[in-house]
Write a structure and sequence with these properties.
CATH topology of the largest domain in chain A: L-amino peptidase D-ALA esterase/amidase
CATH architecture of the largest domain in chain A: 4-Layer Sandwich
Radius of gyration of chain A: 22 Å
Strand content of chain A: 25-35%
Number of domains of chain A: 2
Largest interface: A-B, 63 and 62 residues
Number of helices of chain A: 12
Structural class of chain A: alpha+beta
Number of strands of chain A: 14
Order of helices and strands of chain A: HEEHEHEHHEEEHEHEHHHEEEHEEH
Shape of chain A: globular
Helix content of chain A: 25-40%
Oligomer: homodimer
Largest sheet of chain A: 8 strands, mixed
Chain lengths: ~400, ~400
């Protein structure tokens, strides 16, 4: 985990964005007794944009936070790990609502200004008493430097906290974009399963904030995959509190903000795959020459989610037949005899058949590393897409067969 | 493997159907040097019906056998394991064609009467010399009792040969239906990946044969899943040689034939799941109360293919939250609060929330066995469907990470 080491080596202030504070406590929700309750707080009312899971089974905090972001304004996010508060019925929704009220009361703000997020086991009741007891300390603990602890507190099977930041300048004012996220299973395109909280002190109007978030998510979080499952609790929240004091975002400044936001989300998304449950390799599936944008995406998605392809990655086996078979069932326009495939820069398939043992040997060497690309040219058009995925390992099975028991 | 023992305990003649002979040899195609080339031969020209993979990447033998079954008549099937002859271009098709010619020459029949099937590694050239050298012995070895050896010769990662038979009576004549199949990875609904060869001595007209096959496949092979991948080589062939001497099939006799055929296919499909790569448990996913037939199928398919659900099966963990999350992303009409779920007869979810720890404890006991059902009532309508699946295990990962290397 080079990122973790890099981040740990940085100075603390790098985790702060003006006007935002954060904190975390161990409330006793996680069985491991680690940090499990996080709070992010904006001193001023912030503009907010958020995207939520498209799963039809939505956790109580998702239902509540959708409601609380509808007016485009918010001041706080309270998030717990260890319990998803999903499939918990009316009692679960009451718990989420009560959590927002408690935090609002302690902060002296409105309950509608508090968003709630949860991650962990589905279907178990979330103990309100644990949260009630923890909230006062949680609020007391708020500090400029609390973001790293908050990033730790939202982890479940993650092995390292995920933090990324971007530093920009707009209309003569410096600003930051700071994001934290958690994975690590149930990840697939279409709003990867995760929690992500991003703060900026830039002033960004609500419409622009929403547009920027949606477009950035589409090329980042919606392009990663760990196991093809999506979750009941996915949530990505972007808050902009305007503490930088800039005027309305325009032209180049707007472009820079969007590209900075995309970089932060790309960073976090990459860390999620790298920390995918049991993953030992990160693989970039690149599709070229697709007939349509949806063909390009479906091709990438199907290859990225194939259990047979992912176990071959694990075995560092350039078993391109499995890639061909996955393409063949992706429901796309294709001609077997037109397909070219590369592992990094080593071509292993030309015109639908194998290039030969020497190229496979070279490809296997590339695959022995922990990061490589599979590039597929379908030669059916000019559309491209990509999905970042990981391998399917013994450890994935261990983690998920033993997660609750 | 109780099936294998049971079959081995049976008298040899049970594997025979009048007018059909079979044989198998070790041609040296499989690295293990075991039996890898099988032949099934009908003394008379038989009516034939077949279904093939819907994967757009089709192996050479699939292309050839589709051509050779178009007239509804055939006399022989030659099948190799160890090499799929897929993604092998024009050379591969020439090899498949040459194989049919060689076998036809040796048997004194027409090349168009010979079907070819292959299973194994994709993308490696199939060595024609190995086949040329083996065909004379293969034909010499034909016998009434050869079906068991043929069933062994088509195995790849299968751990036991798959044979099923049905004995019926039509218009005063006894007849048999005898089928063999191989799995064991790349299995999913929509023509499970496999080879299946079914023989009957009943006289069945070509149209009825095709209708019977398609309807039986839909409720059997199209309702099993091992890993959600489909193959380039799927093929299920049904030959009827009329040796029983019956007149045209009608009324009750036709019904009995169809139900006998379905039983044989159901049997073989069940064995394929039981022998799914690394599988330790067979799980029957039953959907009730779906809004539409396609909703019922999609719900069953999505739950049956979820890696998170399948690892929970492996851990005997009644982690119903993962089942709810899978239903939520299945794209079906559903209301979380209307879902009921049972493990065998133990209800674990009522109205979208957990029944409690005591029921989960009982459910975990059921899941400790090697066969159980998950029944899901969506309460959205009257449609039902089911898919038979297996668990996702360490062994699955081992088999597929190390298959070629």
């Amino acid at each position: 985990m080079p990122e973790e080491e890099k981040l740990r080596g940085m100075e603390e202030p790098i985790y702060a964005v003006p006007g935002f504070k954060a904190s975390a406590v161990a409330a006793g929700i996680k069985k491991t007794r680690g940090l499990d309750l996080a709070l992010i707080y904006s001193e001023k009312v912030a503009n907010v944009a958020a995207v939520f899971t498209k799963n039809k089974v939505k956790a109580a905090p998702v239902v509540l936070s959708r409601e609380h972001t509808r007016d485009g304004r918010a001041r706080a996010i309270v998030a717990n790990s260890g319990n998803a508060n999903a499939c918990t019925g009316k009692a679960g929704l009451a718990t989420a609502r009560k959590t927002a009220e408690l935090v609002a009361g302690e902060l002296g703000i409105l309950p509608e200004e508090v968003l709630v997020a949860s991650t962990g086991v589905i279907g178990a009741p979330l103990d309100m008493d644990l949260i009630s007891r923890a909230v006062p300390d949680l609020v007391k603990g708020l500090s400029w430097e609390g973001v790293h602890r908050a990033a730790e507190a939202i982890m479940t099977t993650d092995t390292f906290p995920k933090i990324s930041r971007f530093q920009g300048r707009a209309g003569g004012k410096d600003y930051g974009i700071l994001g934290i996220a958690k994975g690590a299973g149930m990840i697939m395109p279409d709003m990867a399963t995760m929690l992500g909280f991003v703060m900026t002190d830039l002033r960004v109007e609500a419409d622009e904030l929403r547009d920027a978030l949606i477009s950035s998510v589409d090329s980042t979080f919606n392009r990663i995959s760990v196991d093809g499952d999506t979750s009941t609790n996915d949530m990505l929240v972007l808050m902009a509190n305007g503490a930088a004091g800039n005027r309305e975002l325009r032209g180049e400044d707007r472009k820079e903000f969007r590209s900075g936001l995309t970089r932060v989300l790309q960073d976090l998304a990459g860390m999620i795959v790298r920390d995918g449950e049991g993953a030992t390799k990160v693989v970039n599936i690149e599709i070229r020459g697709a007939h349509s944008p949806s063909d390009a995406f479906e091709a990438a998605r199907t290859v990225a989610n194939s259990s047979l392809v992912k176990t071959a990655f694990y075995g560092a086996d350039p078993n391109w037949g499995r890639i061909m078979a996955a393409l063949g069932r992706a429901g796309i326009t294709m001609a077997e005899e037109s397909v070219d495939i590369w592992i990094d820069e080593v071509q292993i398939v030309a015109g639908g058949t194998g290039v030969g043992p020497e190229s496979e040997r070279k490809a296997a060497e590339k695959m022995a590393g922990d990061l490589f690309s599979v590039t597929i040219d379908l030669h059916q058009g000019a559309c491209r897409d990509r999905v970042i995925t990981c391998d399917l390992t013994h450890e994935y099975v261990s983690i998920n067969a033993e997660y609750r028991t």
